[in-house]
Structure formats: structure tokens, C-alpha cells
Amino acid sequence: MPPSPSLPELLATVAAVTDLPALDAVEQEIFGRKHGVLTLRMKEIQNALPEQKKELGKKMNVMKQTLTEAVERRRKELELASVASIAETDRLDVTLELPKKDRGHLHLIPQFIAQVEEVFGRMGFEVAEGPEIETEENNFNLLNIPEDHPARDAQDTFWITDPSDKSKPASERFVLRTHTSNVQIRFMKSHTPPFRAIFPGKVYRKDADATHSPMFHQFEGLMIGKDVSLANMKSVMMEAIRELIAPTAEFRFRTGFFPFVEPGLEVDVRWQGDEEESREGRWIEIVGCGMVHPNVLRNCTIDPDEWQGFAFGFGVERMIMIKHQIPDLRLFYQGEPRFLKQF
Ligand code: DAH
């Protein structure tokens, strides 16, 4: 039987170990219950002469204590070293520039709306918002939209409260707003003219195909003053279209009917892409506008003999479709990175 290793030899073995699994193995060699060096030593003591037992026992305890401490010290060292080496090999330099293609960015709709706010901001328009769940009163009644107007048809409107229940007044019946024109009403009720403002946001209608989505975006605009005219409106429309779509965009004004304006106009912009790509032919309507109807002003406690002005409502997705020649509205909402990354 080989002589069992001495304390200095054992300490040297512990110190020489270079990783944690190896240290576990050495620990087992020393302290193992059955074959550990210390266990074997204990057995030797039992066989020693009685007068030597006490002395040997003391030595054993010192040895055990020293080795326990040595193993623990080495374990700490190795643990620290392994953390340090992980830190080294898995280092992440957070100050490094990410490659540009991997950066996130705003979806093209909020991107475009920010641009709208900037362009109209330069023309002196402030920005305000209103709720998407709106009363029938603000969404329809106060906009001079009569009870039997087709826009109220349950086909187009998502009702929150039961539309057939007529027991409640219009101020307590709710819809998902069908246009941003509700914010005109809210703004006029809470501000004193003169003012000019735009109101961007989401609107909802029961409609879905290549050019219609049940949720889409509009921005409404309103300018009221002592002598704000149709000519002012036309120049604001032209400026917005040239700035937001293209300086060379071709457009045309047509008369249009909206209950909340008189006279009303619609503006079409010419589709710039292939004819086949447009499902609507060459001209696409992007905005309805007109001089605010006296009834609407009155509904908002503004005196139509003193104040006048215009309102308009642009379709955001349609403007972007024309600007970038996007043939299908549904592309906006599919979250397809190959589409979104282009903007
Ligand atoms: N609210 C209309 C719609 O959603 C758009 C519109 C037309 C808004 C004429 C206006 C306006 O402010 O004057 O179809």
C-alpha cells in the first residue's frame, strides 16, 4: 500500500487544480467517506498505540481544518476566475454602433403623421386629439348629419351601444368614431375663434378590401376666423398635397357633398404608378373639405354671422399609397418586415 500523501502534498494538489470539476474530484479524494485520505488516516489512528492516539487525533484535526480552508479558498478563486472569463468571452460592448439595417423605426403611418404635423405646423395649425369611442351626438348629430344619412347605416358604423335602442339620447349612445370630424366639434365647443388646428387619429368603418380597412387613419383640419375663405382653403390643400405627396403631384377639385360643410369639395390626386396597380382608376380621392356649415358652428355656440372658415378630412393611408405607389392597403397592417423596412 503506497504511503498516504502528506499535508504539504495535499495542499499542493489543491493549489494546482485549475477548474471547479477538478476541485470537486480532489475534494472527494481527500474527504470522501469511504476512500478519502482523511478517512484512511482515521482508521490508522484507531490502530495506533493508546498513548499516541491523542497526539495523532489533534494533528488530524489541524490537517482537516487546513485542508477544508484550502479547498474553500481555491473554490472561491476558481469561481471568480470563471466569472471573469465569462465576462471576457461573452463581452458585449453596448457602445458599439448597430448596423443600420437592424435598427427599429417608426411604422410609416406615424412617420407620415409626424410629417403632417410639421407641414401644418409651419402653416400655423396646432395639433389636438379626440377619443376613438365617441357619442352619436359628436360623431353625427352636431355635424349636421341627419338621422337618415347613409353614413349612419349600421353597415358602416361600429356601434358600442345598441343602435336600435332609442330610449337614450344621442349623447349617451356610443360608436367607434367613423371619422376624425368628431374632434372638430370637441375643439369648437372648447375654444374661442379665431383658431386653426389639425386632429390626426384612427377611425373605424365596417369595410374591408384592397383600398378599405375597418380601421384606418385620417387627419381632420379646421380653420375659423373673421374672413377665412374658400380661396384660403384651396391654397392650404394645395400646399399640403405638394409637401406631403410630391411637389409635382397632379390634383383636381370636384364638388362633393358632406352635411357639415357648404359648399363641399373633394380633391383627387393622380395615381403615379402603373395603371393596372390602381383598383380605382387614375384619380384617387384623398380629402373632403368645405366651408363649415352654419348649423355646425351654431351647434358649437359659434356665431355664423361673425365667424366662418373651412374644415377638411384627409385619408392618411391613401396619401401614403399615392406617395409610395403602394397598391394594397392591407400591406400597412401585416407587419411584414420586408415591406416596412423600405420606409
Ligand atoms: N368626415 C369625412 C369622411 O370621413 C371627410 C371630410 C369631408 C371631413 C369634408 C371634413 C370635410 O372636415 O369638410 O369621409
Note down, in words, how this protein is organized:
The protein has 343 residues and is α+β, with helices and mostly antiparallel strands. The protein folds into 2 domains: 7-89, no CATH class; 108-340, 2-Layer Sandwich (BirA Bifunctional Protein, domain 2). The chain is 40% helix and 18% strand. The chain is built from 11 helices and 9 strands. It has helices spanning 7-16, 20-31, 37-47, 50-89, 108-122, 136-139, 181-190, 230-244, 294-299, 316-324, 337-340, and strands at residues 126-127, 133-135, 174-176, 195-204, 215-225, 251-255, 261-270, 283-292, 308-315. The strands form 2 sheets. A 7-stranded mixed beta sheet has the order 1-4-5-9-8-7-6, with helices on both faces. The protein has a two-stranded antiparallel sheet with strand order 2-3. Strand 6 (251-255) and strand 7 form a beta hairpin. The protein is elongated. Bound molecules: 3,4-dihydroxyphenylalanine (DAH). Residues 179, 181, 220, 258, 261, 264, 288-290, 311-313 line the site of 3,4-dihydroxyphenylalanine.
Structure characteristics:
binds 3,4-dihydroxyphenylalanine, BirA Bifunctional Protein, domain 2, alpha+beta, seven-stranded mixed sheet, 2 domains, 9 strands, 343 residues
How is the secondary structure organized here?
Blueprint: H1 7-16, H2 20-31, H3 37-47, H4 50-89, H5 108-122, E1 126-127, E2 133-135, H6 136-139, E3 174-176, H7 181-190, E4 195-204, E5 215-225, H8 230-244, E6 251-255, E7 261-270, E8 283-292, H9 294-299, E9 308-315, H10 316-324, H11 337-340
Parallel strand pairs: 1-4
Antiparallel strand pairs: 2-3, 4-5, 5-9, 6-7, 7-8, 8-9
Bound molecules: 3,4-dihydroxyphenylalanine.
3,4-dihydroxyphenylalanine (DAH) binds at residues 179, 181, 220, 258, 261, 264, 288-290, 311-313.
